[in-house]
Amino acid sequence: xxxxxxxxxxxxxxxxxxxxxxxxxxxxxxxxxxxxxxxxxxxxxxxxxxxxxxxxxxxxxxxxxxxxxxxxxxxxxxxxxxxxxxxxxxxxxxxxxxxxxxxxxxxxxxxxxxxxxxxxxxxxxxxxxxxxxxxxxxxxxxxxxxxxxx
Length: 150
Hints:
Blueprint: H1 5-8, E1 9-13, H2 29-45, H3 49-52, E2 62-63, E3 66-73, E4 82-93, E5 96-105, E6 108-118, E7 120-121, H4 132-143
Antiparallel strand pairs: 1-4, 2-7, 3-6, 4-5, 5-6
């Protein structure tokens, strides 16, 4: 099995457009970064975004809407700050999972995020089991939770 840090530890830099007039990260960026890290993690694991997310002319049979999210801001971030994002996906039941996100900048813990997803049939909008590719990502991620923390 591949080293799970390849898809559970992601890096980015705070850009000027991520900041507000005070020169610090605007609060809404954190949840955007969480979702982008989730998308990139799936792609690095080998799941094409087109197979998970809707696009013009195609909708997957199972949608994975976020039904709960939260964010905790522990320290300010400014343009140019490096970020390491550690993802911790966890299956909650056969039709739901959550991803916890830990944001580090250098040796500082700067933010925490959480997204909770529920599987629903795209046609009926009723709860259903998670798609098999997502189950594989969750299983492989849980096996790799032994990676070194940030």
